[in-house]
């Protein structure tokens, strides 16, 4: 629920409203009390600075101890060598064909993004890796003008990957042909236009955030979704790719529904057992008070 962009936006609006609450009450306090309030504010500002430093150090630790990639590479290389030794038939395919395409199609978050024209490309995808970069595009310091509104590190920008498509192979664009008739001459000619096309690869071309940081609701929603997808790839898809490939990965949301379904099934089974019992007498279950009223 807390990952829903609309809920987060509403919560942020509520918090902003609290921050901007008029300070008339504070101004009406005695001078000694106001000094104590200001002292608490200074402590709050120091806490915000400590929190900012905490997030910076956490990011550095993640980069320093990102050993999962190294272990994963060793396992892949070992598996590759063992497979090559065991493979006696030349007709056997190398590796696992269409591994990442199958992973994407088995993940609910990504399956809707993958279009039919994306599949021939994703079939040739060999590997996906996570690499930690410096925090150059992340602001983790409170704003000097308003240090009390600091809510943690803020991503200031993201850079997509420029894909050098071969001519006629760009699946993020589609060609539209329309016939137009000249009003005076009556002749008909064909006009060709290029328009954007739904594709998984649109993920690599994020919206550009202006320096002012002002975005409309649609742009904010798109950026929020892009962030969620990137986070999902890093936290779930890459470390558990084989589970998604095998169809054995279970999302957290699905766990809740499964538990509810199991509880409902158990209740239904208990009721069904009573009804199927040959010695079961429904009259014995009636409330004595209800029997007297009847």
UniProtKB/TrEMBL annotation:
InterPro entries, per the entry: NAP-like_sf, NAP_family
Gene Ontology biological process: nucleosome assembly
Positions of the UniProt region annotated as Disordered: 249-294
Organism domain of life: Eukaryota
GO cellular component, one term: nucleus
Family: Belongs to the nucleosome assembly protein (NAP) family.
Protein's recorded name: Nucleosome assembly protein 1-like 1
């Amino acid at each position: 629920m807390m990952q829903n962009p609309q809920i987060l936006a509403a919560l942020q609006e509520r918090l902003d409203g609290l921050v901007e609450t008029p300070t008339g009450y504070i101004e009406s306090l005695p001078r000694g009390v106001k000094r104590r309030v200001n002292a608490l504010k200074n402590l709050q500002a120091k806490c915000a600075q400590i929190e900012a430093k905490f997030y910076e150090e956490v990011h550095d630790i993640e980069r320093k101890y990102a050993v999962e990639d190294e272990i994963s590479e060793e396992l892949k290389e070992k598996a590759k060598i063992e497979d090559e030794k065991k493979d006696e038939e030349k007709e056997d395919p190398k590796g696992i064909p269409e591994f990442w395409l199958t992973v994407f199609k088995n993940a609910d978050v990504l399956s809707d993004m993958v279009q039919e024209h994306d599949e021939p490309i994703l079939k040739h995808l060999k590997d996906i890796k996570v690499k930690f970069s410096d925090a150059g595009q992340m602001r983790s310091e409170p704003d000097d003008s308003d240090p009390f509104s600091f809510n943690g590190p803020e991503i200031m920008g993201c850079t997509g990957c420029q894909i050098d498509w071969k001519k006629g192979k760009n699946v993020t664009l589609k060609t539209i042909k329309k016939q137009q008739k000249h009003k005076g001459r009556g002749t008909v000619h064909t006009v060709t236009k290029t328009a954007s096309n739904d594709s998984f690869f649109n993920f690599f071309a994020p919206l550009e955030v202006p320096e002012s940081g002002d975005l409309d609701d649609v742009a904010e929603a798109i950026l929020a979704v892009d962030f969620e997808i990137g986070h999902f790839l890093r936290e779930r898809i890459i470390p558990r790719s084989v589970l998604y490939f095998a169809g054995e990965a279970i999302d957290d949301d699905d766990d809740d529904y499964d538990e509810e379904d199991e509880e409902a099934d158990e209740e239904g089974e208990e009721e069904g057992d009573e009804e199927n019992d040959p010695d079961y007498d429904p009259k014995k279950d009636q409330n004595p008070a209800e029997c007297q009223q009847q």
